[in-house]
Amino acid sequence: MPLKVVVLVGVFVLVAVSFCGWYYSLPTGTDILFLDKNVLTVVLDEIPETREEAVSVAEERILNETGVSRRSFDRYFRLLVSNRTEFQWRLVFNVTAAGSPSNLNSNLTVLLVKKMLPEEGFGVADKFLVALLGSEYFNAHFTRRSFDSNSKAAGGTAYYSYLHNSTEIELSFWVRLGNDRSVTGQHTVSTPQEITVTAEQAKEIAREKGLGLEQGRKDPLSAAPVLVGGVGGRAGGWAVCWRVVWQHTPTEQDYENRTLYGLDIHCTTGEVVGEHRFVRPPPPAPAPPPPVRTAQILTLVERLGFEEVEDGAVIQVNVQNSAGEKFFVVRTFGRTVVKEGEPENADADLTLRVDYDLLLNALKSEDVAGYLQNHATSSDISVELHKSKVLLQKKGYLRLYERLKGG
Predict the structure, then answer these.
(1) How many CA atoms lie within 13 A of 236 on its CB side?
(2) Which of 142, 151, 159, 272 is CA-nearest to residue 207?
C-alpha cells in the first residue's frame, strides 16, 4: 500500500476516534430527577412516634413516587426540616437534579397525617357548634347525618340535619375540618335562633309587600327554608329564613321592570332581609373549546416515541389556536412527566408547536405520527431545536425529531 494512502487512512482513523471521543463525552443530562408534585400526603391510622420512623415512611413514599432507587436516595434528597404536631408529621426535603447544571425542582414536603374517623370528626364539629350556639340549642336542633372524609387527606366534613320541633326540615348544615382538626369552613346559623314564623305566615307577609299580586290576581307562592348570610348586622352572620317565591313565568316586561319575584323573610322576626328580582339572562356565550389536559400531552408524546429518549430530556409543547396552553415534558427515571407551564430552571431541548384541532384529531387516530405527516401544514405544527443535532441524537431524539419534522 502506498505510503500516502497509509497516512490518509491513519489520519482518518485518528479523526474518527477523536470525533467519537468528543461525541460520547457530550453531557446528556441523564439521571435527572424531575418531580411533578411538591407535596406528598400520606394518610395513616397512626402517625410515627419517632423522627426516624417518620423519615423512613416518608422515604418509602418518595421512592414509590419517583422511581429513584434506595441506594440513590441521598444523592437526590436531603432532609431540611422535620416537625410534629399531635396529628401530623411535616418533613421538608431539599431536592437536587443530580447531573444537571440547574435544578428543576423546588423543595418537597411530605405530610404524614393521622386519619380522621367519623366519630372523631363529629366530636370536633360538635364541640365547635356547642361553643358557638350552646349545648341546649345544639341538642334540640342538630342531629348527625354523615361524615365525608377524603382518602387523600386527613380532614373531612361533618353534615347535620336541622330539627324544628323534633322534625327534620330541608336544611343541611356542615362543618369542615382540616388535617389538624381545626375548623376550616362552616355553613350553620351563627347565633341560636328559633323558627317562630310559619311558612304560611311568611307567605302572608310577602303578599303584604305585594308579592304575587298581579292585576288583581292572587298568584300562588312557595316557601322553603334557606340559610341566608349577612343577617343580623354582623358580617358573616347566618340566619334561617323563608324564601318566598312567586310562581310565575317572567315576561319581557318583567325583565324590563325588574319585577320582584322573591323575598327572604327571617324565620324568627318576620323581617324581610332580602329580595329577588327578575334579571334578563345574558345571551349564551359560545362554549370555549375544552382545554388541553396534561394527560392528552402525555398520550401525544408517548405515541410519538418519547419513551425512547434518555432521562433528562425536556420538550416544550405549545398549543396554538386555543387558550394558549403550554406544557413541558421531562423524561425522569424511566417515566414521562408532563406539567403545565414552562420550565423555570432548565432549557428545553426542543419546542413543539401544534394546532389545537390537529392535536385532538391526531389523538383520535391509530397512527399519531402518520396523521400529523398527512394532515399538518407548516402553520399547524413546527419544531424548533434549542440544542445541537449531535446532542439531540446522543440523547435519543433522532427518531422522535424525524417523526415531528415529517409532520
Answers:
(1) 4
(2) 272
